[in-house]
Design brief:
- The chain is of the alpha+beta class.
- The protein is globular.
- The structure holds zinc ion (ZN).
- It comes from Alloalcanivorax balearicus MACL04.
- InterPro entries: AstE_AspA_cat, DoeB, N-alpha-Ac-DABA-like, N-alpha-Ac-DABA_deacetylase.
- This is Succinylglutamate desuccinylase/Aspartoacylase catalytic domain-containing protein.
- Its cofactor is Zn(2+).
Length: 338
């Protein structure tokens, strides 16, 4: 194994101290307005003796608000006497992106969830990724990373996991995703799995649960409530909070994105008109959307039809679409997860 230097990040919290601590991950950032300055990434640690550790993360992408909001709220209310073990809360992993209201960092254009496992000598975003990979994930038994669609996607609410070669880990990750209690639980084939936080956590043999809880660059009372209930359910699943997870009513529907054919990318630029809505059941050949060119009148729109049958679980949120944009995501309904 090659040698990696220590992370440039220092924590103002002590991960091994009992009680509630609110502090920062300090990452040196030398720039024109602050020669010896630092990024100050908020972190809260709540610990009550020996027990499991759950790492709760939001703001991996800066424009996904259910995780940020629910974790800021949790950090305000969770008391040490409520728990057994430890909860580490980072509501805004890519803090510069969250402050800027964008998916990626305005400082280095870094997309944190495409920067894993990270690099202690790399860009600021790569340095953040490296700290999670080598310092926070090893402390953790269960990691919940709360995503939403951000400004450009709207996604049916789901908790997600992956098919993994380690069957025991796959089973535990699925239990965790089901415990979250979203209306849908999804087995997901990822477009860029190798650079995700997910892969780093799974490769360390830890339970990883991610979510998508709507999007569009905003949140709703329902989507935040879903995140808050899911966070508490995961804490119960891990044994940090007492009691069993509260299952959703009706029971979570099981879905799968089996391959990349279920992500539809536009080969045209223009204006999207959807023929179907989020959550609709679609058969192969059904019209999903028309794309209108915006250069002239009198030109027929391009029709996009479903290449496979499934449920529309994701759609592009803005009506303007460019070549290469994913504008629709389909998933199939599973009877069970065999
Ligand atoms: Zn995200």
């Amino acid at each position: 194994m090659s040698y990696l230097p220590d992370s440039p990040i220092s924590a103002t919290v002590d991960y091994h101290r009992d009680g509630v601590q609110h502090g920062f991950l300090k990452l040196p950032h030398s720039h024109d307005d602050s020669a010896w300055g630092s990024l100050m990434i908020p972190i809260a640690v709540v610990r009550n003796g020996a027990g499991p550790t759950v790492l709760l993360t939001g703001g991996n992408h800066g424009d996904e608000y259910e995780g940020i909001t629910s974790l800021l709220k949790l950090a305000n209310r969770l008391r040490a006497e409520d728990i057994t073990g430890r909860v580490i809360i980072v509501p805004m992993m890519n803090h510069p992106a969250a402050l800027n209201g964008t998916r990626t960092s305005p400082i280095d254009k870094g997309n944190l969830n495409r920067a894993f496992p990270g690099d202690p000598c790399g860009t600021l975003t790569e340095r953040i990724a490296d700290y999670f990979t080598r310092y926070l994930v090893p402390l953790s038994d269960v990691v919940l990373d709360i995503h939403s669609g951000g400004r450009t996607l709207d996604l049916l609410p789901f908790a997600a996991t992956h098919r993994l070669p380690d069957q025991d880990l796959a089973r535990r990750c699925l239990e965790g995703a089901l415990a979250f209690g979203a209306p849908n639980t999804l087995l997901m084939s990822e477009l860029e799995g190798g650079a995700l936080f997910d892969t780093v956590v799974e490769n360390q043999g830890k339970v990883f649960i991610s979510t998508e809880l709507r999007g569009g660059g905003t949140s709703t009372p329902e989507s935040v409530a879903l995140a808050e209930r899911g966070v508490e359910n995961v804490l119960r699943y891990a044994g940090v909070l007492a009691g069993e997870p509260h299952p959703p009513v009706p029971a979570s529907r099981m879905l799968e994105i089996p391959d990349n054919d279920h992500y539809l990318q536009s080969e045209h630029a223009g204006l999207l008109e959807f023929g179907v809505g989020l959550g609709d059941e679609i058969r192969a050949g059904d019209l999903i959307a028309r794309i209108y060119g915006m250069e002239r009148t009198g030109a027929a729109p391009v029709e996009y039809r479903a290449p496979v049958s499934g449920i529309l679980i994701g759609r592009r949120h803005p009506a303007r679409v460019a070549m290469g944009d994913t504008f629709a995501v389909l998933a199939v309904v599973l009877k069970n997860f065999d």
